[in-house]
Specification:
This protein has 146 residues and is mostly beta strands. It is 5% helix and 33% strand. Strand 1 and strand 2 form a beta hairpin.
Length: 146
Amino acid sequence: MTALPVVVAPRTPLAFREWHPGIELAKGPLDIPYPANSSEVTPDGVLLPMNGWDQQGYRLGYGGGFFDRTLASLKKKPVVIGVTYEMARMETIFPQPWDIPVDYVVTEAGVYRRDPEGLAFLGEPQGGEGSKLASPVCYADEVKRD
């Protein structure tokens, strides 16, 4: 199942609502679409955008604190995968007490896993001869559901 985050109110945790092609979307803050009428779910995993990241797995987000607040509020912590660019890496983001590190960081260079000592590089993307680093475009909104 796929879910999208929903801003419920300022300075509160996000909700996650089920999403698949055909679910009605509404426009939220910053014109970010969210499922308008689907069921709320608890995620097992979260893909998290990162504007910046450091060797300890902490991230710079968009400044609202929504994801840190949300992750702290969940009874069972999901696997958190930060998605970013290698060039957004910095020595430290100077994390605050409320910041929550990610479990994995995925960049165009490969995958990192958070260990007690910090992020461990697991390796480059694997592929056959002539493989590309990017996957083909996904047109999920064009999938017909029965």
